[in-house]
Amino acid sequence: MKRSVAKFIASGVIPAAMLIAFVGAAFAQAFPSQPINLIVPWPPGGGSDIAMRLVADSATRKFGAPVVVVNKPGAGGTIGLKEVTISKPDGYTVGMLATGAIFSQYNNPSANAMSDFEVIAFFGDDPALISASAKTGFKTLADFINFAKANPGKIKNGNDQPGGSSYITAALMEKKLGVRLIKVPYAGFAPTVQALLSGELDTVTVPAPDIAQHHKSGAARILGVASNKRHFLAPDVPTFREQGVDFIAGAWRAIAGPKGIPPERLAVLEAKFLEALRDKDFQDKVKGAGFIVEPMGRADTARRLVQEDNDMYPVFLEAGLVKTRQK
Fold it and tell me: What is the C-alpha to C-alpha distance for residues 296 and 236, in angstroms, rounded to an integer?
């Protein structure tokens, strides 16, 4: 007849410390036993949605359980991220954290602070771009700057809502270049690009994966890349620095969850998401879609985000963009 674990403990055969370790290991091994929701705080069709669906597909194979993308757009990403922070901290709800979250905490009273999130893994960077409709006739960054300076408030620039990465790019670009744009917010990069192509907008500040195909077709023109090097999707486009403008900006994406996820489950989430991000088949697919993937674990991601926060806050403050909490 089988004796219960309790009898083994009582008899001293299994010390209590060993049982705790055993239960902890079993708990970690049992996770996940149901689908993991990956909240994307932007609508379907944009770069973030595409990137996270590729992550979810790769992660599903690594976890052995479905990783399901759930789109929760609105308020510059704030609505979806709020959903992450208020979800049960059991490891079954995570979300895409991006550059805009740093800005939102200082500009939107409804936004979460960065300290409300438990970072899990880093996806990669997206250099900022400025792209123009073919109808504007802008061929170079200088064309855009000269027209913008001569016609303040005339250029309609498409970006996401205040707090999103392309809004931040537009705001910082105004400050750096000494120009004034009409910043028109859209709920995601896909509708922003469509508005550019339809003639509703003159320029957009969306990332390369969202605009590169239209640059190649001639429907739009990427005027400059705000990075140290040219983007592989548009190698013909010089950087801002190559064109005499010292401007570096862009976005990043990471995976994060709510505070309070048990350490053993956090360890599983980190390990499996990193496996998914480092998978060669996945990396080939995301590069084909135009993304730059630079996976990092929890510790390195946390350090990167703290540094980003420290670096960006003075810029927001100087530009008069800090409306809510002070750092």
Answer: 30
Beta pairing partners, 39: 70, 95
φ and ψ of 207, to 5 deg: -70, 165
Token look-up 């973030």 returns: 48
Q: Please give the model's pTM, rounded to 2 decimal places.
A: 0.76
Alpha helices in the chain (DSSP H): 5-11, 16-30, 47-63, 78-86, 100-107, 141-150, 165-177, 189-198, 208-217, 263-278, 280-288, 298-318
State CA 173 to chain mean position distance: 20
The β-bridge partners of 96 are 255
Q: How far is CA 63 from CA 35, 60, 258, 265, in A?
A: 10, 5, 19, 12
Sorted by where each starts, the structural domains of the chain and their CATH numbers stand as 31-125+250-318 (3.40.190.150), 127-243 (3.40.190.10)
Closest CA to 236 of 221, 256, 253: 221
Pairing of strands 220-226, 117-133: antiparallel
pLDDT tens per residue, range 244-270: 999 988 889 999 999 999 999 999 999
